[in-house]
Write a structure and sequence with these properties.
Nucleotidyltransferase, domain 5, 2 domains, 5-stranded mixed β-sheet, 10 strands, about 25% strand, globular
Length: about 220
């Protein structure tokens, strides 16, 4: 089966065409040279899509897969909007992939008897978190690391794509850094293939928001 994968995560936004296990990939970072400060890589997903569409026959895809959050509001909106537009235009269904499952699936094998807490950076020092056991999400939310020990049990295994392990070591939790394990795209392809039978209509797809929007107020000059 062929799939179009749209990953709108902040770390490596990309669009990929998957024909069986072969991936043709276009990354947003390839279109960000010279961007002004504040511009977001997920905004460049449309350029990634144009590149993929020029190299592959999008009419041959069986379904569109897209990350639905949690994460950057900009990325989530951009990714889902593109996925829905394609799904309507191609008359295809969408396979939603949440970023917690995407991160946890980068581990080669999980212990069914263990609980895992996946951490995804929000607006630091806050993190999105989800407790997962046997592929079932027990609880989730958004908090600072100092509060994490009050939320999860001591034998829970922390999982994340960490740049600095010292961020979590002093909480005495066992942890797994997925940075050098399975790539996000390989993980997304596996989840897409696994859940292709449960694809949804475009209008059923909703973003996974765990935090309210924060609007900054600017003083007006009188």
């Amino acid at each position: 089966m062929n799939f179009l994968l749209i990953n709108s995560g902040d770390s490596d936004p990309s669009v990929a065409f998957a024909a069986n296990d072969n991936l043709s990939v276009s990354r947003a970072v390839d279109f960000t040279d010279g961007l002004a400060a504040g511009n977001k890589k997920p905004d460049k997903l449309i350029h990634c899509l144009n590149k993929i569409a020029g190299d592959n026959d999008l009419n041959s895809v069986n379904a569109v897969s897209v990350t639905v959050g949690p994460g950057s509001f900009t990325g989530i909106r951009a990714g889902i909007s593109i996925a829905k537009g394609l799904a309507f235009g191609l008359d295809r269904k969408i396979i939603p992939i949440d970023n917690f499952a995407l991160c946890l699936n980068r581990i080669k094998e999980t212990n069914p008897g263990k609980k895992y807490c996946v951490l995804i950076p929000a607006k630091l020092p806050e993190y999105y978190w989800a407790q997962i056991q046997n592929s079932i999400t027990i609880d989730s939310g958004c908090t600072i690391l100092e509060n994490l020990a009050k939320i999860i049990e001591k034998d829970t295994i922390i999982v994340g794509d960490f740049d600095d392990d010292s961020l979590i070591k002093h909480y005495y939790f066992e942890h797994i850094n997925v940075k050098n394990l399975k790539s996000e795209l390989d993980s997304m392809l596996e989840l897409t293939q696994k859940h292709c039978d449960s694809a949804k209509e475009a209008e059923e797809i909703e973003p996974l928001y765990l935090k309210d929007f924060s609007l900054k107020k600017h003083a007006r000059n009188s």
